[in-house]
Amino acid sequence: MTLSEIDDKILEIEENAKNSLAVASNGKTVLKTDLEYYETLIKMKALLDNPDVKANIEKYQEFAAILGIKQPPKKRTRKSSTPKQKKKVATEPVVAEEKKTEPVVSVVENTESVTEPIVKATEAPVIVPVTEPVVAVVPLLNPIEKKDPLLLGAGEPEVKKPEPITEVPTEAIVEDYSYRKTKGEIIQDLPLYDRSEQKFNDPGMSAEEIKASQEKLASIPVMSPEKAEAYVKESLNIPDIEVSSTEAPAYKPMSAEEIKAAQEKLGMNPASATPKAESYSAMTPEEIRAAQEKLGTTPASSSSESEGYKPMSDEEVKAAQEKVKSTSKAPTSEPDQPDFMDDIDFEPKKKKKKVTKRKGFFNWMKGSVKGFVVCKGIAFLENNMKRSEEFRKINDMLLNYRLVYKTRSIEENKANIDSINQTIGMSTTLPINEKIILLKRLRRIIQLTERRNKRLAKDQAKVDDLSAVIDDIDSVDLKR
Amino acid sequence: MNVDEVITLEDGKEYVLLLDSMVNGNRYFLAVEIINNVPTENYELFREIIEGAEISVEQVEDSALQEKLINDFENQFEANEDKEEQ
After folding, report:
1. Which of B39, B63, B77 faces A378 most closely, judged by CB atoms?
2. Kind plus residue range of the DSSP H or E element containing B39
3. Residue A341 and residue A328 in contact, taking contact as beta carbons nearer than 8 Å
4. Of A30-39, A140-149, A178-187, A293-302, which range is least confident?
5. Minimal Cβ distance to B43: which of A365, A381, A451
6. Could you tell me the end-to-end alpha-carbon distance of chain B, in angstroms, rounded to an integer?
7. Which of B1, B54, B81 sits opposite A354 (nearest CB)?
8. In A, which residues are within 8 Å of B11 by CB distance?
9. What pLDDT, on a 0 to 100 scale, did the predictor assign at position B27?
10. What is the C-alpha to C-alpha distance for residues A97 and B16, in angstroms, rounded to an integer?
11. What is the rounded CA–CA span in Å between residue A157 and residue A154?
């Protein structure tokens, strides 16, 4: 590095130092970058020194405790020896490194004497960042210039008196400030009566509002139950209901006398009640009989065993079943009515049936006869399954068609197929699976019909050929 | 038991075995009850049970199996029908 270069650097550093200083509202010289924060601290200090504010802080702390708002942790005392690096002040230590031989002055900010930067001469470039704020972190208005190393020329801190700061904190700062603060900190800062003082601390409520809510809330924890009841009653307009403990005794079963008294009170006739009704107890057979007699039923008709339940023996069960069967099968005046007893199987149905005899082949049932029977059988079994009524109807139509199509004309078959197809197509209640089965069957009968039609056409062609031959023969004969 | 055979069950009813089908190793029959050698409208699906020399049948009650058997018998019938027509 040449001498001129060194001179340039020195000048540059000095210039930077000059530019980095500013005069605060109290006339003190501070770094430009710290100015906003410094101003804030000054204002907050003034606020906190206010005895009214102090009193309100205490109140708000109580209020916060009632609301369950966590109080901010106790402020840590700052040690200048181990400051927390909150702000990156010096980012280019290259300059200092180059001037190792020259004493370098660094600015150390002391929280206890914020207003006056301590100027220390050290051999090595020591960059001490500005420490954490005491009360809150306030964002800087002007971003820190990277070129500003905060290093002053050794021994000659030529401080140019800067112009007084006229900048007023913007709303953005206020918002940002509130945002960065904890709930507890904001509450602590709340008691501000002077609107002008709320520039940094206003969380949204005016001083009047805060005071009013404070007064209102102050009464809540000390409200007695009586007071609370009165308040609720007053608020909800609940009429006074005298509830005496004698009128609402704890539940206990009523005695017979009490029941009687209550019945009389209600207009009931307690005399009509049997003495037994006063308290329930299982009736004896004699009592039951007496009651039956009283009710008009015939106790004589009931068997003596009805007095107490006794399971029936197997013989008795069988006899009873036979009795029921015989009585149910007796002819009735309406023989067409289905007898539900017929559906009841008293004996479990034997699923497995032994084949006792096997005859030879049933030879006569072959060909079309068997086809007819099988076709019918498939349709019957299909209908016996869980199918809809509409399915059964169309299935029967298909079966009937199938059984007779060979004997019908082409036109008739066509009309029948169209009719079935239309019925299936028009149906809205047919489940899709049933529709598929029916369409499959319809396709089959169309296929069979077409095959038959082709065969008929072939036969017709043969007939035509034969008749042509006959005609030829006839014509030959005529010529002869 | 074979197709076209007439069997008599222990309750005295006679059936003609119309078609057969094998499902899961079991043999099933489509049978029609006959009275005096005349087919009735009483059709059954039987499962053949062979226990030594004794043969018995059991009615098919499972609806899924019923559906499967009906479908198979229908296909068989149609195939026979086509064969006969050709």
Report:
1. B77
2. strand B38-51
3. yes
4. A140-149
5. A381
6. 29
7. B54
8. 353
9. 92
10. 116
11. 7
ipTM of the complex: 0.87
Q: Which two tokens stand for residue B53?
A: 């020399």
* Residue contact B5–A376, C-beta within 8 A: no
CB B28 within 8 A of CB B45: yes
Helices A389-404 and A432-479 cross at an angle (nearest 10°) of: 20
CB contact under 8 A, A365 and B2: no
Give the residue carrying structure tokens 């402020």: A75
Q: Which residues, listed in sequence order, are joined to residue A348 by a DSSP beta bridge?
A: none
Distance CA(A113)–CA(A450), nearest Å, equals 113
Asked if the Cβ–Cβ distance from B32 to A377 is below 8 Å, we say yes
Do the Cβ atoms of B5 and A351 come within 8 Å? no
* Angle, vertex CA A235, rays to CA A233 and CA A237, nearest 5: 60
Main-chain dihedrals φ then ψ at residue A58, nearest 5 degrees: -60, -45
Strands A151-152 and B38-51: unpaired
CB atoms within 10 A of CB A472: 10
CB contact set of A440 (below 8 Å; sequence gap of 6+):
none
- B45 in contact with A at a CB cutoff of 8 Å? yes
Cα distance between the two ends of chain A: 146
Q: Which two tokens stand for residue A219?
A: 């009464």
Cβ distance of B9 and A375 shorter than 8 Å: no
pLDDT per residue over A465-475, tens digit each?
A: 888 888 888 77
**A347 interface with B at CB cutoff 8 Å:** no
Per the CB < 8 Å rule, is A354 touching B30? no
| Residue in chain A nearest B70 by alpha carbon | A378
Residue B28 pLDDT grade (very low, low, confident, very high; cuts 50, 70, 90): very high
**Closest CB to A385 among B5, B7, B66:** B66
What phi and psi, each to the nearest 5 degrees, are found at residue A361?
Answer: -60, 145
CA–CA separation, B18 and A361 (whole Å): 11
Using CA atoms of A73, A78, A84, A85 in order, give the dihedral in degrees to the nearest 10: 120
